[in-house]
Amino acid sequence: MTVAAYRACLAALMLAIGLVLAGPAAAVVRIKDIASFEGVRDNQLVGYGLVVGLNGTGDKLANSPFTRKSIEGMLERLGVGNLSDDKLKTQNTAAVMVTAKLPPFARRGSTIDLTVSSLGDASSLRGGTLIVTPLSGADGEIYAVGQGPISVSGYSAQGNAASIVEGVPTVARVVNGATVEREIAFDLNSLNSVRLALHTPDFTTAERVQKAINDELGHGTAKVLDPGTVEVARRGKYDVPTMMAAIENLEVAPDSVAKVVIDAKTGTIVIGAHVRIDKVAISQGGLTVKVRESYQVSQPRPISIGKTVVVPKSDVKVEEKNTKFTVLQGDVSLQDLVDGLNAIGVGARQTIAILQAIKAAGALHADLQII
């Protein structure tokens, strides 16, 4: 068998048991893919509004007094008289919370998407229309105003004896549903320096980012402040946007800690390339108990006094799996670990238990993260 064929077979076997190998840690990526510029970020907006036009699936006003008050206030502002003494019985309106993200450098007049979530006991928002809703930031200022027909991905259906719900019909989206009314003042060219925030803080990665920037823009331009921050001083011939464009396309090889990630729900295991294991002996096996229930009918003989009874019958069988040890030598690499686990023929669930046991024994030199 050729080397290529052997690797193909090994990859197929690892995929079959749910074992996924992480790519090389020395992969070269752009700085823009592992870091972001400090201050260039989204801002959260929130608002309270009403969705109208529902087909009887809105809030029950007896259970949602805030919806009633909102309807009364809206109609009064639109010129309808005082309705506080009238009994509203509409079920075509729902109170909702509206959320959105204001992207960096959003200009007045641009549009953003909205997420609309029911606040009361409405059963569905399908077919509704969001009426004018101011959206405020954390400082209390209004930055956008939303309105428009909403789009619901889930649905619900109900009969006299059964009902079905698919997705979440009480959460909807309004694409381009809000118009930006206020801009966040941020002048890049007024900065004397910019800071890069690494998505995964690491001293080695930060040092490599610093070196790549200094090689491109000149010695002393970049300085590591901490594992997650690199400060870049502004150079005379560069304006800040041009300098940022030059920086974010530089390529570096990020480093990472040794880590094993286990998803116990799906049986998926991801092992990083830096994982090392001391010399250990592994044995995996156990007992399998099979219980089979069956029933027999016992009837009385002809011309006799008796009754028919059901007699249960249980067959219990115990199977003991033959176990064997495999020895992993000291300073085991990722490939050696996979070969050793495959040698004793374990599946994904057994592999998870083995990795946890190796970690408990102090022989696994990596972070073990279970999600």
Automatic annotation (TrEMBL):
Principal cellular location given in the protein's record: other
InterPro entries hit by this protein: Flag_FlgI (IPR001782)
Keywords: Bacterial flagellum, Cell projection, Cilium, Flagellum, Periplasm, Signal
Disulfide bond as UniProt keyword: no
Signal sequence, renumbered to the chain: 1-22
Domain of life: Bacteria
Localization terms from the record: Bacterial flagellum basal body
Function: Assembles around the rod to form the L-ring and probably protects the motor/basal body from shearing forces during rotation.
Similarity annotation: Belongs to the FlgI family.
Self-association and partners: The basal body constitutes a major portion of the flagellar organelle and consists of four rings (L,P,S, and M) mounted on a central rod.
Protein name per the record: Flagellar P-ring protein
Phylogenetic classification of the source organism: Bacteria, Pseudomonadati, Pseudomonadota, Alphaproteobacteria, Rhodobacterales
